[in-house]
Amino acid sequence: MERGMIATRCDPRPVVRTGRDRPGRFDRQLGIPGFGPAAQERLLRATVLVAGIGGVGGAAATYLGAAGVGRLVLVHPGVLEEPDLNRQTLMRPEWIGGSRVACAEQTLRAHHPGVEIVGYDRELAELPELGSLVAEADVVVDARHNFPDRYLLNDLCVATRTPAVIAAMNATEGNLLVVEPGSPCLRCVFTEGDPAWQPLGFTVLGAVSGLAGCLAATEAIKIIAGFGEPASGRLLQYDLWDLDFRSLRVRPDPTCPTCARPVPGAAEPRS
Ligand SMILES: [Zn+2]
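Above: query sequence and zinc ion SMILES. Below: predicted holo structure tokens.
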């Protein structure tokens, strides 16, 4: 594993323990109908792989950690740049030039010291252990911004029967697709290079990427905790330009190269 390094100063403030054993830490969510101590325990024991720790993944990781997910695995290559700061709220201006994933680790550890965080400053395709990381995760949050990464994760998630929450945004628009074993996968819904999914010019309003990350975190929490109705089999498309939200039922593609072949023991596709 190659861990990232923060190339700039970081605050050496003492860490205040506010972890899972702190009384009252999760009181505000334990009373949600359908939630409760058993759901909380599932979150505390869970691992979520967050692929992409920018505006979308950073927001997702923030709320996954706040909800008490026990272990976050972060994967993101490269260093922090000035234009990242309109949306990447885990970052600080003084960290420009430092590893994005290491900066994200630093902030998440300060906010959520009870959460185990593992960071990889690597391209997904260059991470030899990616397959095992996906298989070990309870949920994968796909917050990358290119098709090769998205299909790589999709195919690994389908192969290992790992639920995936796939979030994308561009300018004021966003998409959310949840893939669970047996439900239509990314390749069923979007052919490679589909401009309806791919951020083209990569213009970004930070608040929109934050919403995309919050939606992804909520779906991941629902899947892990076992409450609510996870959105597998549906595609949420929204445009905050005019606050338009559409939830579309999606169907499995019988010719899908990834999920059309039945996996032994797999659930039947949902209609
Ligand atoms: Zn498929």
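The beta strands are 47-51, 71-75, 116-120, 139-142, 164-170, 173-179, 234-239, 244-249.
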